[in-house]
Amino acid sequence: MEAILKSSKLLNVCYEIRGPVPERARQMEEDGHRIIKLNIGNLATFGFDAPEEVVQDVIRNLPNAAGYVDSKGLFQARKAVMHYTQEKKIADVTVDDIYIGNGASELIVMAMQGLLNNGDEVLVPAPDYPLWTAAVSLAGGKPRHYICDESNGWLPALDDIRAKITERTKAIVIINPNNPTGALYPDDVLKELVEIARQHQLIVYADEIYDKVLYDGATHTSIASLADDLLFVTFNGLSKNYRACGYRAGWMVVSGNKKIARDYIDGLNILSTMRLCANVPAQYAIQTALGGYQSINDLVAPGGRLARQRDIAYDFLTSVPGISCVKPKAALYMFPKLDPKIYPVTDDQQLMLELLQEEKVLLVQGTGFNWPTPDHFRLVFLPNADDLDVALGRLDRFFAAYRKR
Ligand code: PLP
Hints:
- This protein is of the alpha/beta class.
- Helices cover 37% and strands 15% of the residues.
- It has helices at 20-30, 52-61, 75-87, 103-115, 131-138, 158-163, 187-199, 262-274, 280-291, 296-300, 305-317, 348-359, 385-403, and strands at residues 36-37, 98-101, 121-126, 142-149, 155-156, 169-175, 203-207, 231-237, 250-256, 323-324, 333-334, 337-338, 361-362, 364-365, 377-380.
- One of its GO terms (molecular function) is L-alanine:2-oxoglutarate aminotransferase activity.
């Protein structure tokens, strides 16, 4: 019998956050090693509990949650999201414009499936959260990566965006706050992005899943609040702001110039009905989460657990010879740079495997975020201060040994 091959649609699809290096870590764990995992933004596994009222709401409603619900989601959940969009000053959103999904992830894939014909292009940041590149490719599209500029706080390089637009460019993806860089885009940059989208009639996909994970008193502007003549699709959910990744509850909001997008919206509706509905128990938590006490604010405030861990990781990384790092203003990650003169890495996946083997620390290589050169890695600063110290000490030893090679 002939070998069974995967679909050619998967040729350019990869997701390194759970790729070969984490797979090796899993095997090592099976062999009895204890691995410090700094590869994934899974808050609950680091003792960041979801708000108690949110958990209780899911438990209380479980007996009512055995049936399918509307494909776009529970009315009360969408109503709560609608109020949230008003807080974020996104105009003219009705309950009908909101789709609840099994995490933002499902909706990102759906949004791309509904839009792209083979060969259509989408501007995606580099580095990116790699689901975006994967979702564009899986839908037959071509991701065109625009550079975010490390020397400018990882803000999108507007000239690079302009240079990469062709007649096949349909949309631009903006991840703000950004994973993996921790950048938070100021309003003037967002306005310029809107202007570019306007000039080239691009749909704006705004991934704002970290919009409450903001340090140093920063505030977040939803790009969809800045114009009503373009089509915006904004993504958010319970995974990060409410530390409930495992509930798989996210949402997508269509706003702006919905009139020109009737056919696309019809496509989104078809796709959402095809999978009947998203996980119902978690949808009950959305109203409570959005309307309840915003405990994330305590974690990111000066002295809060997340803010302290960011500072520990940043102070450490910037003290290692040959490593530099932009201080994150938001989210849960850092994307440090290895000076190629000191660390002449040619294969960053191999580097991460060596780190794992030698020091039992799991990180993800920069190229896993579609960064073009093997000179970055992403670190998740979620372990508590003691564990973080241990992990950073091991990194220190690894890089000191590398410098002596
Ligand atoms: N978007 C970004 C930027 C993320 O970092 C993540 C998860 O890490 C997601 C989307 C996926 O979120 P969800 O858990 O809602 O599927």
